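Dear colleague,

Thank you for sharing your sequence with our group. We've completed the structure prediction you requested, and as agreed, I am returning the results in plain text so they can be pasted directly into your records. Please verify that the sequence below matches your submission; if there's any discrepancy, let me know and we will rerun it promptly.
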Amino acid sequence: MSEAARSNSARASAPELLQHRRGARDAAYILGDAFSAADIYLFMLSRWTHNVPKKARDLPHLGELLARVMARPSVREMFEIEGIGEPYY
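Please find the predicted C-alpha cells below.
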C-alpha cells in the first residue's frame, strides 16, 4: 500500500472503510449471502452514528445493508420492546 493510500485510510472513518469494502462486493450481508452475527454487530455499531454528522445509514452500500437488517422482523421487534424510535440507526 502506498504512503498516500495509507494516509487516506488512516483518516477515513470506520463506516467509510466499510462502505468502500461493501461497494467492492456483491453480497447481501457482511460475510456473504447469509445473515450472521457480524451483521448484527455492525448494525449495533452503526447505531452509534445516528447523532454524528456522517451517519452510517447515509453511505449508499452500508445504508442498504443496514436497511436490510432493520427489515428483519426480529430486529424491528427488539426496537419495539426496547422502546427505541426512529431514527433507528
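Summary note from our side: The chain has a mean pLDDT of 80.

Kind regards,
the structure core
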